[in-house]
Design goal:
By secondary structure, the chain is an alpha/beta fold. 51% of the residues lie in helices and 13% in strands. It has a five-stranded parallel β-sheet with strand order 2-3-1-4-5, sandwiched between helices. The protein starts with a helix and ends with a helix. The mean pLDDT is 92.
């Protein structure tokens, strides 16, 4: 089996893991969520999905579809995101609106997503989540002890501290959402932007 055939099979596997998709729309959008672990990306994505029909592509959940025992190496991540990017293209071409829930800390990695949206003429909305470090630590430590979790994220406080210096400035217009506070007003603004 060649590399492209193997990648196609992995994209199909990721797509199957999503379950039922929302009805296609004439003008699909891509919401790109960026932020350090524990800053509320998954919570924000779930809240958006309650307001707008969309598919949530949660990178940690998708990683486990392809690698049941993930090691989070650079090679594994590069492989995962190649498949995710192809899946995003496929879904947008079919008119499926979606949100990518991943750290997306590097502008170089975000640029690939910008180009997919630009090339397919899909509306791109970028959202950066932030939270006070003390609250992030509390969330990450609480997540590890939660018996029933609502997300697939695994990073702990040490991972947050290691990743923090890698967070790069987003060069395109974007929303900044402080999840230390109530996010309803920010959600209203994002939904209005999607409807424009």
């Amino acid at each position: 089996m060649d590399v492209s055939e193997s990648l196609s099979q992995e994209v199909a596997k990721l797509r199957t893991s999503l379950g039922d998709l929302p009805e296609p729309v004439a003008n699909p959008f891509l919401i790109l969520v960026s932020g350090l672990p524990g800053t509320g990306k998954s919570h924000l994505c779930r809240k958006l999905a309650q307001r707008v029909p969309l598919v949530i592509l949660e990178s940690d959940a998708l990683r486990r579809v392809l690698s049941p025992n993930p090691c989070y190496s650079a090679t594994e991540s590069a492989h995962l995101f190649r498949a995710i990017h192809l899946l995003i293209e496929q879904l947008l071409k079919e008119g499926v609106p979606l949100v990518l829930d991943a750290t997306n800390l590097s502008e170089r990695h975000r640029e690939h997503l910008y180009s997919i949206a630009d090339r397919l003429n899909a509306k791109l909305v970028i959202v950066q989540t932030k939270a006070q470090p003390g609250l992030v630590r509390q969330r990450l430590e609480g997540r590890a002890q939660a018996p029933q979790r609502t997300d697939s994220s695994e990073p702990d406080w040490a991972v947050y501290q290691k990743m923090r210096p890698a967070e790069e400035r987003i060069k395109r217009n974007h929303f900044v959402v402080d999840t230390s506070r109530d996010i309803e007003t920010a959600l209203d603004k994002i939904v209005r932007e999607l409807e424009r």
